[in-house]
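Exercise 7. Given the components listed, write out the predicted structure of the assembled complex. Treat all entries as one system.
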Amino acid sequence: MKHIAIVEDETAIRENYIDVLKKHGYNVHGYADRQQAQAAFDVKLPDLAIIDIGLGHEIDGGFALCQSLRALSPTLPIIFLTARDSDFDTVCGLRMGADDYLTKDISLPHLMARIAALFRRSELLASPTTEDTLLYREELTIDQNKMQIFWRSEPVDLTVTEFWMVYALAKRPGHVRSRQDLMDDARVVVDDSTITSHVKRIRKKFMQCDPSFDQIHTVYGMGYRWGA
Amino acid sequence: MGSLITRLTAGLRLKIIIITSLLLTLPWFGYRFVLEMEKLLRQGQEQTLIGTARAIATALNERPALFSQQANFLPRVQQGRDLYVYDLPAAIQVDGHLDDWPSDMGAKMHYYGHPYVLFSQQVYPKGYTDFYLITARHQQEIYAALKVNDPHLVLRRTGSNRVDRNDHLTLALTTPEGKFERYLIALEASGLTSVWLISDNPDTQESFLPVTNVTASWQPSDTGYTLEIALPADLLGQQMAVAIHNVDHATKRDVESIIATANTKSADTLGPVLLPSPDIEQIVKGMGHSSSRIWVLDRHQRVLAQSGDIQHSNGVWATSIRYDEEEHGLGSWLEQYLLRPLYYTFLLSDPVPFDDQPANPAMIQGVHVDQALHGRGYAHWRPSSDGKAMILSAAYPIWLNDTVMGAVVVEESTQGVQTLKNRALEKLFNVLLAIILIAAIILFLFASSLSSRIRRLRDQAEQSIDAQGRIRDAIVSSSSRDEIGDLSRSLANMVSRLGQYNHYLENLSSRLSHELRTPVAVVRSSLDNLAMSQQHGEDEKRYIDRAQDGIRRLGTILSSMTEATRIEQSLQGADMERFAFNELVSGCMQGYQLAFRQHQFRVQIPESPVFIEGAPDFLAQLLDKLIANATEFSPVGPPIEVTLSQKNHLAVLTVSNQGPLLPQDMTDQLLHSMVSVRSQQHQAKPHLGLGLFIARLIAEYHAGQIAIRNRTDGQGVIVTITLPLSESAAKLS
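Answer.
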């Protein structure tokens, strides 16, 4: 049974999450503040951690917790689930090594899907890749099972949200996906400019592998498309 | 230039200049003051002059010997009959030529005409024979000069015994001892004539005795002859008369007429002769260095002695201060060549050379003399004889045993005071000019700095808040400690507080959404939990669905509430690039034509590239907002017009749609966050009135402007966006 830790200072939300996760067959532990969580993690690491950024009186307690967790394990999947949705916080959270950054207006089914996807990815990372789950788009390769993306055979380190967006774009190259489409595909409720900044970040990640990367096109007034 | 003039006319500087011009009244006050001072000086001069007169009079008091007795006790003086002996500066050559007499002798000569005729054989015709006479003295000689008008000269025949059968003169006098003596001077062929003492003793045969102590010489002239007589002063007592005996017929040789200063028949009829007293002269001469003109008069106002010259008699005033020392340097150069000529052209008058001759040099008249002869010292101002200067005359009586024996008259011109006044005014004007100049410059600079500071503050205040009421620049508070500094600090304070409040308001939505997100999450997770549990009836499921739908809408609202803030944040990290704006717009418009199929678009975009510097993503987002807005309000049917044009370094984008008009006072407010004029029918989706606010943020980030107005045809609304062109493109175009 997968062990999930939820660090959330708002009791109602924490309990709700614990309830729903337990219903889905996970072993869930909730912690109200960083000290409790830290103490528990020192004893035993969970299989996945869902962390709020603001913890009690510690405004950035979640970030600190994420850092110490990442120090303990480089592979442990970490999700930020927070009310803070500024670009700055998103970038911070992802830079600290979180696998996803979600805002609290995500619905529970979406959250469950994310968690399942993350587990699947970490499980399948070890397993051999079967050919039929691979999607080839010229120099781009998408492993749907492992939720991994390769550009010229090099892995591109994308978050789950970003993976879904690239997947949605690359599934039908040349087709324009509007921002709303991308939001639905990534299962997030955000505003247009958040999508814009996500796309920017994705482009940057690709450009780290290949500075001449130019596959995600902005179609002004409509959205984005993959390839020509 | 025009703006400078208007700024000057309406500004603080002009007002201060006007106030400063009050300083110009200072010279007037100074002038009044100097005039008062001049009055005082004149009074002082009067007093000094009376003092001088008194001092001289005191020296002459109680000295009977100084005054000729007889003349002084005459009841009155008869002009002509009473002879006045002038003082001569030099001895006279007795040769009949009058050219060695002083030049003013013409004025001093007395005319003897008709009233002085003693005897005439016929009715005396006017101008028949008359003469001019002057008597004078130099040291111990007394001279007389005559100009006789006599058309028929009858000379003494050479060798003739008779001396009176020709044109001749008789000179009658009393000696100092009181003896009556008469001399006869006959015209002879030569210039030098013989002088005879007329013996009145009938016993003696010889009635004419030649004398040598009296000499006479004559010369013929155009109208008659001129004659000079010299006699020793000790021969003359206090009376004298001269008579001309005219003989016209060379053969008959009878005396036709006698014209005389007084009857020469006896001592009683002679006229008194006034000899200026050498003693008085001596005393006065001692006083004569007081740089005043001094007269000593007898009771009959006749001059006994005179000293000094009115030309140099400006009192001690001018000599007491040395002004004429030359100074060197710019200041004195300015004063000498610029200021002084200016003053003397417009303000001051230099003392002019003047001439003052008494009407009768032998007799001084005037109120002051009358007053002095009545025993009172008196001073008065009178114009000089040519009217060019004022002369101060002071007179003081000379006493002898309670009787006024004469008067001392002292005269000075006012030139000294006038010079003094002029110098004072010059100095005053110089100083005042300097003061006014300096004060004006200082005040002008002060006013300029004040007005420029106030103007700067005004500009800052105007620039600190834009048309939408947002804080653009903080006011730099001034560090000066005066009121304007205070005002600047208050304004800076005010603007910064306003800025903080604005900031608070602008962040309100994002903070509110942040705060609301947690309770929404609570509700949402609870609802989701509820929905996931299977044991629900149909009704419960429906309610849960509705609640979930509501919470989803709430989530959308919350995320769009933070959109503006997010845009601001991400704009700060946006990369600017140079790109063709027209391509972006046309690309977008193609998308919109697909996205909003029920609407028509009429697009006008130039073919040639319109380059601007900016973030294309955001500009596309801006266009999204505008088009979304337009489609929402535009009725289906009439097209939405989008134009892009280029005007003087600016790209102008307009989006115009038909539809409901804006309330007049709302136009600018619409660009604020959370302001919306949507009616209920447009409220299908949650809307927070952020579209135009975000558009404004993006436009302003690109240093552009956005304006929303009702169309001039009154059919709808037009949004205008102006963006500066990229600099290189602006240069090319």
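Discussion: The radius of gyration of chain A is 18 Å. Chain A touches chain B through 35 residues (CB under 8 Å).
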